[in-house]
Amino acid sequence: MSNTIYPIGTPGEPWGPEHKQQWLEAQKIHRSYQDEVVTKIQALSAQFEIIEYGLLAYQQDYPLFALKHKNWQAGRPIALVTGGVHGYETSGIHGALAFAAELTPEHSQAFNILVVPCVSPWGYETINRWNPDAIDPNRSFYEGSPAPEAQLLLDFIAPFSSDVLVHIDLHETTDTDNSEFRPALAAREGTTNNNWNIPDGFYLVADTERPQPEFQKAINAKVATVTHIAEADINNQLIGVPISGHGVIEYAGRKLGLCMGLTLAPYVTTTEVYPDSPRSTPENCVAAQVAAVVGALDFVRAL
């Protein structure tokens, strides 16, 4: 299924700088990173060291924060949780924060916990997949990245990278993928848009280079206690990709510049929540993200 023609640019021709500027001028602030995210980060100061690892200087300044648990011990494996790489994917940000707020001793004693709740705060405020330069941060995790959201996180994680054992990157797949973001991508690239079938339910994206099927299965089993797992379509696919297990597909994380390729952690996954399901609520979506992190850590801790 193809969408109608996107209102910016000429069909079949990639965007030039003037089109990207036109797109940027159409973006508006819808919510507050400071009020809705930073205040929750600051409220965790008793349990976490709050690290400002960078600053995005856009129309306004956006400080970037990581939460490093105070029970950090040298030599212990790191569990990394990232959210908000796509700022519009709300439960990723609030799921990361909720996990941090609900962190149990069994996990903080087994792992050094590092949480980066909102990688793309401008995207959070404008409800966007891209940054102001019309760049997708989640295709930009490589050295010399054109997206400062990705490069600043790469720089911050580098000293920790070899000790990261598990990395959970929290995302959503929404109806706006078909109504806005995929049409915008096709317009930017000068290609034809073909919408995908949005799965109704939670699913995971594993890394083709380290798929860890039992790890993915354990996460979905935990999430299934709070929300439904997406069923494959008639082609045995999710978002146009063949499933590798119930509620699991695989992408080449590092090759595609995805956040799940940020480190060489052997246990890695990207969550995908569907907030537009009639069976979901905002609270349920956050609970699914927390359950995914807990399920991941429980599995690895039991090895």
Automatic annotation (TrEMBL):
UniProt-annotated catalytic positions: 272 (proton donor/acceptor)
Similarity section: Belongs to the peptidase M14 family.
Pfam families: Peptidase_M14 (PF00246)
Official protein name in the record: M14 family metallocarboxypeptidase
Span of domain Peptidase M14: 29-300
Highest taxon, organism lineage: Bacteria
InterPro entries for the chain: Peptidase_M14
